[in-house]
Amino acid sequence: MKTETDLLHLKLQGFCLIIAPLLFLISTFFWIDGQYGITAATLICLSIVFWIPAFYALFGLLKYSMPYYAAIGLLIAIYGCCMGGMGFGMLGYLSAIFKISHHSYLVILQQYPITSGLLLFWSGPLFPLSLLVLSVNLIRKKAVPVWLGALICLAAIAFPASRIPRIALIAHLADVLLLIPLLIIGIRFIKTKEVINAKIKKD
């Protein structure tokens, strides 16, 4: 018998599975000439708060079938999302406030290759890469329906294709591809009356 607290944690994780990608989706509508700007950057930074429980939920679906991957993969995903997402979000926020051009801050960041790599350029790619590997493993272990895992996989591929060149149309597509499966999984977490620890089953 699982406690009411366990179920509350699941419902909170389900809520975060919805809010995190939703904030990503909303943020891209506030891009300014391919730059985050103040509003988009703020939304990205706020989304990180929800991404952490969301990742716990997703990797938790594999904690029994792939315990080592679930633990190590979670850590890598949090590093990529939190460090990279928060780093680029704050960079966009501060550069907009202080009116620093994209070219100018790139030149300055090149003067600090190690720290810039740790905080931004190395951590950032780990977010979509983590989603890509996670989606494959969720499908392999039948933890989610194949089509949900496939959508996460497509979103992981589309994410860097939109964020690196900052193409808004592709960004909207990537965000929708990510929101749909996480929305469905999140709703099932919220509606569940028993602890989910192996797979997301059909309603």
Automatic annotation (TrEMBL):
Sequence intervals crossing the membrane: 12-32, 38-61, 68-94, 114-136, 143-161, 167-190
Alphabetic keyword roster: Membrane, Transmembrane, Transmembrane helix
Name assigned to this protein: Uncharacterized protein
